[in-house]
Amino acid sequence: MSHIDVDAIADIARGAAILGAGGGGDPYLGSLLAERVIEQTGPVELVRLGDLPDDAVLLPVAIMGAPTVIVEKPPAGGEFAAAVAAVAASYGATVTHIACLEAGGLNSMMPLLCAAETGLPLVDGDGMGRAFPELQMVLATLDGISTTPMAMVDDKGNTVVLNTVDNAWAERLARSATVDMGCGACIALYPMTGREAKTALVPGTVSLARRLGQVVTTARQDHRDPAGAIVSEMDGRMLFRGKVTDVERRTQDGFARGEAQLAGINEDSGHTMTLCFQNEHLVATRDGDVVASVPDLICVLDSDTGEPVTTESLRYGFRVTVAGLPCHPRWRSAEGLELVGPAYFGYDHDYVPVEDLAGKGMSHV
Amino acid sequence: MSHIDVDAIADIARGAAILGAGGGGDPYLGSLLAERVIEQTGPVELVRLGDLPDDAVLLPVAIMGAPTVIVEKPPAGGEFAAAVAAVAASYGATVTHIACLEAGGLNSMMPLLCAAETGLPLVDGDGMGRAFPELQMVLATLDGISTTPMAMVDDKGNTVVLNTVDNAWAERLARSATVDMGCGACIALYPMTGREAKTALVPGTVSLARRLGQVVTTARQDHRDPAGAIVSEMDGRMLFRGKVTDVERRTQDGFARGEAQLAGINEDSGHTMTLCFQNEHLVATRDGDVVASVPDLICVLDSDTGEPVTTESLRYGFRVTVAGLPCHPRWRSAEGLELVGPAYFGYDHDYVPVEDLAGKGMSHV
């Protein structure tokens, strides 16, 4: 057991945004929102997944919507406490712990803010080990745990509680409500016991995010390449160094979708990379060949500072380093790939782990 | 207090479909569904609005969606009981009575079916004295009664519970969920006390529907004009006799929208009528001039049989009689017209009561 105080927030938000693979929201906005609350409430207790009692009732929370919109319309305050209360009433149990639904600059901070507001401890883990664009894309789905009862609360005070026959229906109904709510809603979902959480959550995400945040800070202080340090830390692969030459984006069906074009610089000079995203980066192609793909993490970092660049903040002229990091091993199983593999997102390439695709002649570390 | 047995169902459904002004669903489908249940459960108790205890907890129910779709996808059974239970849990009170949200061929029968399934009495009244396409269009809104807590249940078993900041937000969020649910959902909403119901419901709707149904039956037996008998009974106006020459319809935003063109016959020979509808008929124009408009009821009856013709069943070649019936007086107030007048639906004509518009040279009764 440990605590998260104000000093830890910036590193956690930065590291979680790296794990967010372009999604999960803006870390700067996230850390500002969390700092403001934790300065008032004091530190939040962080509980290791392994230390959770089997009969704990754990509730992951997040912001759902298009990151492009959320950055302009953060929560008004009190939404998460209302969402937790609504799920608890429908689930018929008192919630004892808050968790992260996903990693991400905003979605690591919202659970922290929720824990601070409700006075509940935060579990050190998350539902997927990265960020994904749709609700059913969590390990809990592989374990047969229901998304619902799920609550959604908007900044005006509207509340929607869902109880659905499967997790795909929860995504469908919640996505429409999110669009109505202005493409941003505070959500609480996948209530589960401590026993269930031990397999359905990825352990240690908050601690890992903090460590990755510190790796960037330290590399910067030591004048080392922050992206290279992250790739080493995560046993990932360096995919590309380049300059953003074009970003096409659209807010569609409640998602931020689009494509970014990169022109190579330094050792990648003369080559191009295309990044396709739906809130998160889904596929990276180099000169037309897939070099990384969902469910692996495609992370874009500012080449100078090592700061993660989210899909909604990518823009022309940015000099970025693209890294590929291995996803949680359960996503590489047949059932994992069915839920979050390339085919689900409409791509026709087979999934090959990023270590195998980009591992040979392409590592610039 | 009286009872509704199987023998009363066809008349109630027919009369309610006349009051439905083209909407509220198909009376034949409605009566089949209600008969099947009431044959099993026995008669349903019908309670006069004036006899309701002040502390009764009354819950209106209906099917929400596009009538074009609902006719192909009726409830599977059990949805209404689930919706009532979900509202009761959120409202924090036991429901004592079921009511009709609106008049209509299907939406007079669904409350009856719900009452039979839950064993609760049905209140003789409804929320608007006709059918309207959007949820906030009830007298309860004028009284400041909230649409929510509201529950929506689909045929698959998905449940959505809404608690919104105002009634327009309930309509917005519920409409999207209805679209996701396949354009048809069983809903329970506007929980209210017996005291509130006495002004927020139109009294006597079920009895009136039964009487109108009988008027049609009797006129037919006596070889009198059924449409003329309805107009006399309701102090309405005969608007047009004609043949449907064209119907343009589209299922849009979860509604059945469209326009029907009529060519006059008999005394209306050489004239034309256009009916604009959004689930219900909204405006009737004769040779380009408005002769009836929301919130008054525009009712289309089969010229031979007097059977009400709903907007989704209107088609080329039908010989129909169009009647205009006065709406509940509260809809003619300034606040009533703001909620359901022509301007809300995007028309630029001022509302004039149908008796004044069509009353002079046009009555063919």
Task: Provide an overview of this structure.
- The structure is a homodimer of 365-residue chains.
- The first copy, chain A, is an alpha+beta fold.
- The first copy, chain A, folds into 2 domains: 2-205, CV3147-like domain (CV3147-like fold, 3-Layer(aba) Sandwich); 225-357, CV3147-like.
- Chain A contains 12 helices and 17 strands.
- In chain A, strands 1, 2, 3, 4, 5, 6, 7, 8, 9 and 10 form a 10-stranded mixed β-sheet that branches.
- Helix content of chain A is 32%, strand content 28%.
- The first copy, chain A, has helices spanning 6-19, 27-41, 67-70, 79-91, 109-118, 139-142, 167-180, 194-200, 205-221, 226-234, 334-340, 354-357; strands at residues 2-4, 44-48, 57-65, 97-100, 122-126, 150-153, 159-163, 184-188, 192-193, 202-203, 237-252, 255-264, 272-278, 280-286, 289-293, 297-302, 319-325.
- In chain A, helix 1 runs antiparallel to helix 2 (27-41) and helix 1 crosses helix 9.
- The model of chain A is unreliable at 360-365 (pLDDT under 50).
- The interface between A and B is medium-sized, with 20 and 20 residues.
Order of helices and strands of chain A: EHHEEHHEHEHEEHEEHEHHEEEEEEEHH
Taken as a percent bin, the fraction of beta residues of chain A is 25-35%
- What is the straight-line distance between the termini of chain A? 35 Å
| Quaternary organisation of the protein chains | homodimer
CATH structural architecture of the largest domain in chain A: 3-Layer(aba) Sandwich
CATH domain topology of the largest domain in chain A: CV3147-like fold
Based on CA atoms alone, the radius of gyration of chain A comes out at: 19 Å
Mean pLDDT of chain A: 94
Total domains of chain A: 2
CATH superfamily of the largest domain in chain A: CV3147-like domain
Under CATH at level 1, the class of the largest domain in chain A stands as Alpha Beta
How much helix is in the residues of chain A? 25-40%
Number of strands of chain A: 17
Structural class of chain A: alpha+beta
Biggest sheet character of chain A: 10 strands, mixed
Unreliable segments of 5+ consecutive residues of chain A: 360-365
Biggest interface between chains: A-B, 20 and 20 residues
What is the global morphology of chain A? Answer: globular
